[in-house]
Design brief:
Blueprint (H helix, E strand, L loop, with lengths): L6 E4 L3 E11 L5 E7 L8 E5 L3 E3 L8 E4 L4 E10 L5 E6 L5 E5 L3 E3 L3
Antiparallel strand pairs: 1-2, 1-5, 2-3, 3-4, 6-7, 6-10, 7-8, 8-9
Length: 111
């Protein structure tokens, strides 16, 4: 379930922000009101079925993040999903080697 303000992807590609929901939408399906971020619908709002939404990635390649241990890391790729449903990214440590880290174990670094 999503909350107001969450960034989501519609059908895995179109970016939007949740404005309201969940609620019982047309046809009795779980739905959300979203505001589109880009494309020809950018700035407009629509009601979409919950099943068509997924959480947008929190981080992008080359973004600098801080691990929960305070280490600065560079995002290399991701997100990927572990078999138990948790999303993770491949990151580069300051001394060079790559590792993986769960999405919830890192925060963005403000410039």
């Amino acid at each position: 379930m999503f909350e107001q303000g969450d960034r989501v992807l519609f059908e895995g590609k179109e970016s939007a922000e949740v404005q309201f929901g969940p609620f019982r939408g047309p046809g009795g399906t779980d739905s959300y009101l979203v505001k589109w971020s880009e494309g020809h619908m950018g700035g407009l709002s629509s009601i979409v079925r919950a099943a068509t939404l997924e959480a947008a990635p929190k981080f992008e390649a080359d973004e600098i993040v801080r691990s929960e241990k305070g280490l600065l890391l560079r995002v290399v790729s991701g997100p990927y999903t572990w078999s138990h449903g948790v999303r993770f990214y491949v990151v580069e440590k300051p001394d060079g080697p790559h590792t993986v880290i769960d999405e919830d174990d890192m925060t963005p670094v403000e410039e």
